[in-house]
Design brief:
The structure holds two protein chains of two kinds.
Chain A lengths: L11 H14 L1 H27 L1 E2 L2 E2 H32 L2 H6 L5 H29 L11 H22 L7 H13 L12 H10 L1 H14 L4 H30 L2
Antiparallel strand pairs in A: 1-2
Helix pairs in contact in A: 1-5, 2-3, 2-5, 3-5, 3-6, 3-9, 5-6, 5-10, 6-9, 6-10, 9-10
Chain B lengths: L4 H13 L4 E10 L2 E11 L4 E5 L6 H8 L7 E6 L2 E2 L4 H5 L2 E4 L11 H11 L4 H14 L15 H12 L6 E5 L7 H16 L4 E5 L2 H7 L2 E6 L2 E6 L1 H9 L2 E6 L2 H10 L2 E5 L2 E5 L3 H11 L5 E5 L2 H9 L6
Helix pairs in contact in B: 4-5, 6-7, 9-12
The chains are: A mainly alpha, B alpha/beta.
Chain lengths: 260, 319
């Protein structure tokens, strides 16, 4: 069975532990961005630009973008972990070779990396949420649901990232998904302006295809404590299904790349 | 390296039964259309140091990777500890210690942390791992460097730390792929010393190497491979005797010497400005050359594995 279908075991957590240990060794460097970044965005966009924008859909602009900042953090922290950082471990440090020389299989290694990417999203998003709560721009207690959700969203973007890592010939070609996929998504997923201002077909495209659009929808429901139920359920289901599929697809692609 | 009495007992037990640690039968590995390993068979017995020699592209590393259960064989049979590599990778890898050709230590950790993190992959409890890591650092003369990051180590220290890492799980089989590659003579001798010690403790070791002196010093038995096939198998001393005789006569390459050798009807090879002649009685041959062929110089030296290697694989450059 295992020979055909990628089944990681509990040993995946050993890889997760390894990444956690490295992360907390350099925690000062790691924890600075999630605290500084939202403050900058809140000041520049929320209060600066927000002065001219006023309200969107009856919500102050700063409260409109706060959940988007959380969603972007979930995306960036996990996506960049499982692309550039994973590529460095795989290709330059030969860390995967070292790991598969132990009882760990390549399935365990990749699953551990994905779980770590998700955890990183959780850590960063939680840190950022603390700042947003301090600024009083998110609703409580519903915003706390963002914390468990950030793990799921992180796992989604980790899976996407690992698929790109598995097919990328070099670290430079990872710039393609970073600039052609992540950057446009960062701007056109209902982050800094509502999707409804875009032409109809693009709205449909965004809600059908773009992962960040789903993550923004769910995050915004939590931080504004207001839910459009069909849309919310659609986005949650979309994330759960795509996340599960990509978890296994990315492991499969990595195994194809590394087990020769 | 033995961590406990129990393990030593276990190895003695294996020795008594004498069932092979590795058994390869008609093993084949293809990469696409390229056949990297072409129908090779060999067995490695408990307590043996077994070498794989060959020029670049001979299939040595590919063979190691199949034994390590990280590269599935295309065809043929391969078992380690009596378990088929296809069906029991985790069960086999549990008892392997691997020193890869490329240094793949974790640069985010110190020496000791490298060992501890690796121990965790083997499910070794933290307390035992600590003890074992300290023992191994001492054995490899790295105690002083325990808390130094990997970047702060010399090439020789890195190789020794990789060897320590490979021993963290008390392996029943050590796999060394070019263990002394890129080391200076001092570091190489240090590595040999450690490997000799491991050998004396009864460890089963397989290794690949380009350094024939290394193979001659360390290996009980070896195979010479070329283009994916095993050319010859045996003990180093036996191979030298069989292919070159104990001693080789070397002389200057002049037409006169060559004419002489042809007249005497003995086997010889020309290498640049030197000619090598092989004989059952090398000293007699050398005397005759000296007396009758007017050579610039002639001398007799001990045959080495390098002579066997070059005889079998040729002098053509492999790149």
């Amino acid at each position: 069975m295992r020979r055909f279908f990628p089944m990681p075991t509990r040993l995946a957590w050993k890889v997760w532990q390894r990444n956690r240990d490295v992360f907390f060794k350099t925690y000062l460097v790691n924890f600075l961005p999630p605290f500084v970044e939202p403050v900058l965005y809140l000041l520049a966009l929320g209060y600066g630009l927000g002065l001219f924008v006023g309200e969107i859909d009856g919500v102050p602009y700063v409260s409109f973008i706060a959940p988007a900042l959380l969603a972007i953090s979930m995306m960036n922290s996990s996506f960049f972990e499982c692309t550039y950082s994973s590529f460095v471990r795989m290709y330059y440090q030969k860390a995967y070779d070292a790991m598969v020389a132990t009882p760990l299989s390549i399935e365990d290694v990749i699953a551990g990396e994905l779980l770590w990417g998700a955890t990183r999203s959780l850590i960063y998003t939680t840190a950022m949420l603390v700042v947003l709560i301090a600024f009083g721009v998110v609703a409580l207690p519903s915003s706390l649901l963002v914390i468990p959700f950030s793990f799921l969203a992180g796992l989604l973007f980790s899976g996407i990232a690992m698929c790109f890592t598995a097919i990328s010939p070099s670290i430079d070609t990872l710039n393609y998904p970073a600039f052609l996929f992540i950057t446009p998504m960062f701007l056109f997923s209902g982050t800094f302006f509502p999707l409804s201002v875009l032409p109809g077909p693009i709205q449909v495209f965004a809600m059908a295809i773009l992962p960040l659009a789903q993550v923004v929808t769910v995050s915004r429901s939590f931080t504004l404590a207001s839910v459009s139920l069909p849309l919310f359920l659609y986005s949650i289901a979309w994330i759960a299904v795509v996340c599960t599929v990509l978890f296994f697809v990315s492991i499969y692609l990595m195994r194809r790349r590394l087990v020769v | 390296m033995q961590g406990s009495e129990e393990t030593t007992e276990g190895k003695r037990g294996d020795n008594r039964i004498r069932s092979p640690i590795i058994r390869a039968r008609d093993l084949v590995k293809n990469y696409g259309n390229v056949r990297a390993v072409d129908t090779i068979s060999f067995e490695v017995m408990p307590g043996e140091v077994f070498g794989f020699l060959g020029p670049n592209g001979a299939g040595k590393t590919t063979t190691m990777r199949m034994i390590q259960c990280v590269s599935p064989p295309t065809a043929g049979f391969l078992s380690v500890f009596g378990l088929d590599v296809k069906d029991h990778p985790a069960g086999i890898k549990r008892w392997l210690g691997v020193v890869p050709q490329e240094t793949n230590l974790d640069p985010d950790f110190s020496c000791r942390e490298n060992l501890l993190v690796y121990a965790r992959y083997f499910d070794i409890p933290a307390r035992e791992a600590q003890k074992r890591a300290d023992e191994l650092l001492a054995f490899m003369q790295l105690t002083e460097k325990a808390d130094v990051p990997i970047d702060g180590l010399s090439g020789g220290m890195k190789r020794r730390l990789i060897l320590a890492r490979a021993l963290i799980n008390n392996p029943r089989l050590l796999i060394l792929d070019e263990p002394t590659i890129g080391l200076d003579p001092q570091a190489r001798h240090m590595m040999w010393e450690k490997l000799k010690a491991l050998q004396a403790m009864g460890n089963t070791i397989i290794l690949t190497t380009h350094y024939l002196e290394e193979a001659e010093r360390l290996c009980d038995r070896l195979v010479i491979m070329d283009a994916g096939r095993v050319l010859v198998e045996g003990r180093p001393a036996d191979l030298v005797r069989r292919y070159t005789g104990d001693e080789i006569v070397e002389s200057e390459n002049s037409p006169q010497v060559l004419a002489c050798l042809q007249e005497m009807g003995c086997r010889y090879e020309v290498h640049g400005d030197m000619v090598q002649a092989f004989s059952d009685q090398p000293r007699v041959l050398a005397r005759r050359i000296l007396e009758t062929c007017n050579p610039g110089r002639v001398f007799v030296r001990r045959g080495t594995l390098e002579d066997v290697f070059l005889t079998l694989t040729g002098r053509e450059l492999r790149e």
